[in-house]
Amino acid sequence: MEKTIDEKKQGQTLVLDQKKENTRKLFIESYGCAMNFSDSEIVASILSDQGFNTTQSLEDADLVLVNTCSIRDKAEQTVRKRLEKYNAVKRINPKMKVGVLGCMAERLKTKFLEEEKIVDLVVGPDAYKDLPNLLAEVDEGRDAINVILSKEETYGDISPVRLNSNGVTAFVSITRGCDNMCTFCVVPFTRGRERSRNPQSIIEEVNDLWSKGYKEITLLGQNVDSYLWYGGGLKKDFVKASDMQKATAVNFSNLLELCAQAQPKMRIRFSTSNPQDLTLDVIETMAKYDNICKHIHLPVQSGSNRILKEMNRLHTREEYFELIDNIRRILPECSISQDLIAGFPTETEQDHQDTLSLMDYVKYNFGYMFTYSERPGTMAERKMDDDVPEAIKKRRLAEIVQLQREHSEIRTKEYLNTTVEVLIERESKKSDAHWSGRTSQNIVAVFPKEHYTIGDLVKVTVKDCTSATLIGKAIKYSDNN
Ligand code: SAH
Ligand code: F3S
């Protein structure tokens, strides 16, 4: 899954290596973006030192944790439904404790304990290291909460336990928080100010993953292009840094290069890019290294300049096109994907047409599309009426989704009768005789297994395709294998 919500992964429970001496059982499930899934690996790692082994059976659990998402109302409703389910299990097993982690914990704070009587523990995204203390409180029969946001916490010193892993691909988080304040978005409120992780600890994690057999990593952040390390501290405080700190600072392009050089055969991905921060040097670094995957997830949200301004997105439609043109010029083989929102307050039919025409210009390979969901506390909620009727939002979204489907089909057809490089990740969901993996461009490819195995990089000739999947035959191992 890239940064964005992967519907197939929602609610996945996580299992980690079992420690013999551990006697308590943890059931942990995650909702929302890749960062949450990655955070759950940090939480499981912290709790593994506190006597917890994970279980996939809710009924067996001593502790149930749900890592939550607040991005749209629907995401929150899904979690509320899960709490009802936990409640039913708690009636059978009254000793079971329930904790809420992540963005809903941060957004609702103590309200959670008041509204949802079954919740014993509320922990925000920067407070996971406090879990041992909080659990001690809970063990003594008290509710426990820590939702303090941090200026420094990056969990750089915690070695995440890879959970439910295919052993081939892993997330490596590089920044936390977001300073952008897009007016529709709750993330700056739930995940705090932007801070970057020490590049040395990132490289160590990449090296460690390679030594354990991993073949692909995704560098994760709300806005990876904004990565900036100058010895620690908030991104916004960089202006106050010393000359020495400024001269030795590491930006995202530098970090990408460091990762690509550290493990020349490790595939490197990153997510998410923000048009306002994606600089030419990042695109040039991508071109320079074969092992940096040629895919950019570049959310645009709207094609209308007026709406972009209302959203506080700091680029225009024209600047976005210029960026797309630069990507196409420097990296002709690069795929591009989007996030789009239909029905932001005041959006007119003309604004919507501007979104469709922007899509026509770019012809994205794929995208994640949503209707606007008003989030409490955001600027849009405070200053604007959610005035586009639900039916119109839905109709506009359907038109956007339909157009994207057509573009995806055009894009996948471009690969017909070509040979692509695929990293095998798992068995195809539709057939146990086929492998499934992704190309550098992040397009799924399936092909007969033959003598190949999970973790192999193979050359695949594309014979057929659907709008989202390439269907082919492996012809040999890739030289990069
Ligand atoms: N910069 C972040 C964005 C996280 S939110 C990242 O990509 O990592 C992911 C996507 O959810 C956004 O790009 C946006 O398209 C969508 N989104 C965010 N807030 C929303 C809201 N209030 N209503 C509908 N969609 C929203
Ligand atoms: Fe949200 Fe905009 Fe940041 S979408 S996560 S405020 S870049």
Would you summarize the structure shown here?
It contains 15 helices and 21 strands. By secondary structure, the protein is of the alpha/beta class.
Helix-strand blueprint:
Elements: E1 24-30, H1 34-48, E2 52-54, E3 63-68, H2 73-92, E4 97-102, H3 103-108, H4 110-115, E5 121-123, H5 131-139, E6 144-146, E7 169-173, E8 175-176, H6 187-191, E9 195-196, H7 199-211, E10 216-220, E11 228-229, H8 243-247, E12 250-251, H9 252-262, E13 267-271, H10 280-288, E14 295-297, H11 305-310, H12 317-330, E15 335-342, H13 349-362, E16 366-371, H14 379-383, H15 390-413, E17 419-427, E18 434-439, E19 444-448, E20 457-465, E21 469-477
Parallel strand pairs: 1-2, 1-3, 3-4, 4-5, 5-6, 7-10, 10-13, 14-15, 15-16, 19-21
Antiparallel strand pairs: 8-9, 11-12, 17-18, 17-20, 18-19, 20-21
Helix pairs in contact: 7-9, 9-10, 10-12, 13-15
The structure holds S-adenosyl-L-homocysteine and FE3-S4 cluster.
The site of FE3-S4 cluster has 10 residues, from α6.
Radius of gyration: 22 Å
CATH superfamily of the largest domain: tm_1862 like domain
How many separate structural domains? Answer: 3
Secondary structure tally: strands: 21
Bound molecules: S-adenosyl-L-homocysteine, FE3-S4 cluster
Q: Which CATH class of the largest domain?
A: Alpha Beta
Distance between the termini: 22 Å
The gross shape turns out to be: globular
Strand content: 15-25%
Number of helices, where a helix is a run of at least 4 consecutive DSSP H or I residues:
15
Helix content: 25-40%
Mean residue pLDDT: 94
Reading side by side through the largest sheet, how are the strands ordered?
2-1-3-4-5-6
Biggest β-sheet: count, sense, barrel?
6 strands, parallel
Low-confidence parts, pLDDT < 50 over ≥5 residues?
A: none
Q: What name does the CATH topology of the largest domain carry? A: pyruvate-formate lyase- activating enzyme
CATH architecture of the largest domain: Alpha-Beta Horseshoe
Which structural category fits the helices and strands? alpha/beta
